[in-house]
# Entry
Amino acid sequence: MRLRTLIPTGALFALPAMAGLTCFVAIPFLLAIALSLTNLHLASPLPVAFVGATQFVRLFEDPAFIRALLNSLLFAAVVVPLQTVLALALALLLNRPLLGRALFRTLFFMPVVFPLSLVSVIWILIYAPGPDGMLNGFLQFISLGHWQPRDFLHDPVLALPAIMLTSIWQGVGFQMVIVLAGLQNIPEQLYEAACLDGAGRWQRFWHITLPGLRNTLIFVMLVTTILAFRLFEQVQIMTHGGPNRATATVMFEAVQAAFSRQQVAQGAAITVVFFVVVVAVTLLQRRLSVQVPREASR
Amino acid sequence: MRRRLVATMLSYAALALLALLFVAPVLLMMAGSLKPEARVLTEAGSLKAFLPGNWTLQNYRDVFARVDFARYLGNSLIITGSVVVAGLVVNSLAGYAFARLAWRGRRLLFTLTLAILVLPLEAIAVPLFYQVTWMGWRDDYLVQILPFIANAFSVYLFYTFFVDLPPELEEAARLDGAGPLRTFATIIVPNSKPVFASVAILSFLGQWGVFIWPLLVTSGERVRPLSLAIATFYTLPPLQWGDIFAFGVMMVSPILVVFLFFQRWFVRGVVATGLKG
Amino acid sequence: MASVGFIDVSKRFADGTEALAGIELRIEDGELMVVVGPSGCGKSTALRLLAGLEQPTAGELRIDDEVVNDMAPQQRNVAMVFQNYALYPHMNVRRNLEFPLRMQKLPADEIARRTAWATQLLQLDGLMERLPKQLSGGQRQRVAMGRAIVREPRAFLMDEPLSNLDAKLRVQIRGEIAALQRRLGITTLYVTHDQVEAMTLGDRVAVMHAGRLQQVSAPQVLYERPANIFVAQFIGSPGMNIYASRLQRTDNGLACAFADHWLDLPPDGHANLVAAQAHIDRPVYIGLRPEAFARTDVDVETLTMTVKAVEALGHEQLLYADIPQVSGENTAIRLPALPMIAIGDRLPLAVDSRRIHLFDAEGRAIDGEQA
# Structure
């Protein structure tokens, strides 16, 4: 009996991938939801029970978690616009027919290739306290000696910005390449027509470039937002959430809860909150970008 | 005319300055890996950070003396290689099935696949960990490979590419008597090199640096990949930055070399995500 | 409204291609000048030089006798209609029309007045809120024209504006463009590769080939007195038939060789007998348009041709025939639709010798004047 008559070929082709996605993505996700409604605590003698929304209530009463959530939101709120603007600026600079353009593009894209764990370790030295630290040395140099060396990674105010800088350094090349492709998709004739219509350089940027890049920029910001919420490696390696949870993020807290404290259910709950936040922000961004009109009519 | 010249020069200046800032950490790592240990820290605060001075390979020797670097490298290659290769097969078949074959449930499953795109690894890492632990799986290659083979994004990339292929190719194959699998293998795949290259590169890039998963599921050095090893090496006393940099250089060299040679494909892969987005 | 001039303009691109060589062209105020030529002849380059989108390597560009070489496109006050229209995709029709006026910082009521005027003139009512992608090809073309005329520019530059339209639409809009230009009286430089467009639209037509002007005349002059073989073969569909020939003195005047006959050249025909004297016994070329042949039953100095291909056009037929004594390409012949000729027929045809054109060995018309 031919298998093909029993099961359509298409289903067979898709089977391995669908099985994999179900088993390793869909089920864990559902499991997370299920676990978050229990009180599973691996080091606790209490029997496992269904507790409804208790975990979530507990989470939102926990100042540590609130702090982590705020940190994640703050991180995203700063990194997304900064990284996008920087990516746009770099792409604009690279969009002219300059000699050595390919070299520059390579240099800006190179950090993307570095694993985040390696990036984190390197930047620990860059942020080293004292005048021997590279960033301290650099700031002292350009401020002509006025800069006082700081211990970035242990400073409650500077630690999160330090991680932001590291993340932007690593990620901007990726966005730049996408924006550059978007720029090159804008037909040259539109610029020529605008030129003849009397538009100067800034006007051409505002009326031709930005609208032409609209979809690209929306996409870039969306991806950066999701990546921003996933922040984990830098926190784990560079600051371990400190000082005093100044750099703790949602994912960091999830791993801490589940592994350091054996609070499985709470870890799962944090994961669910993470997912909800990401989806909410994504939808919000999409809604906002749809409403931003093309040139607003009078 | 002169205005254009000034603008060009300013662009160059800006680019050069930014490029230097960008490349500084990389140079720091490379130069530091070649310096005698004593000087790495003391020179980090000045321009001398970038000049090795007396070159020495001692740091590299130290790395091999202190840890089993070759093992970590081997692990990374095995894990990443398996995920990429298996992923190309599994995800392309699924992408093709969605794009070109008719079967019941196609539309529903495709919608669900797209829905999964929103889920990053982090959203499911914790529960997935418990799942595999409960299944008795830990601390081996399989647990680091299997969960990552099926990838919703790769399926989507393959789908969008296959959808745009001219149907005449398959029709001709069908008339010649080829079944779906043979058509796929001998007609579709050879004509889809760009998407296979893009997916391979993106998946390699993504998998090589995965940190949180090996952190959760491995203990001990046996199957630990490079991405985790650098972090544990950093915490291994004594703290020798020269050694750490040497480790870093060796760790990033394979992917850097692949990147420099296949740059065009890297960029094309990245752009593919942007265009489809 | 202004006159436009190219004074010895040349353009060489960075890769060495010489797009234009020594172009001298003057377009009068209010004139519609068509520049026509095959792809790559440099006509679009000339247009772009005038717009300021490229810089000439040598020569002067003048608008209203003012040298504009160093003026930025924004300052030249010329409007261009691009081949692909180049409408701003994210702006609706209204905003597209208003854009150039906003760039000039005109007051709001002036902007509204001009927009309304252009809308009415080009019949764009009802389309104002649509985006370019929601418009048909013909509508987009009109919006592109609208955007050009709201500026009340000194000159219109049109870069093959009809190429992207289907044949019927092309004919209709061609007429609209001609009417619009006449009505507004704006100096227009119109570039096309289609010689039919050139002939129907232009007050004068400039034929261009390989970066050089071949002839600048009114359309009919171009047809009846082509300055060289290129123009003779380019203008007219199909173009003029050209044959190698020689001249010989006869008792009555001059005769030219054609298919083993000597055809007398009448004094009242296209050939300039006085100028031709200098070319006796030298190789020349003669040209005969497809309508210079006619059927004849009378056995008078006829040529017998074998028909190789027939194109029946309804009102006439085009034959492509092989004249045995003449080597080279088939001769194109235009005959009335009936009686219908079939492939392989052997036809006796006579030549109207008043319609013989003479060209010298270099291809220039022998008519005693330079092109």
Remarks:
- The first helix of chain C runs from residue 43 to 51.
- The mean pLDDT of chain C is 88.
- Chain C touches chain A at residues 51-53, 72-74, 76, 78-80, 82, 84, 86, 88-92, 94-95, 99-100, 103-104, 129, 131, 147, 151 (CB under 8 Å).
- DSSP finds ten helices and 20 strands in chain C.
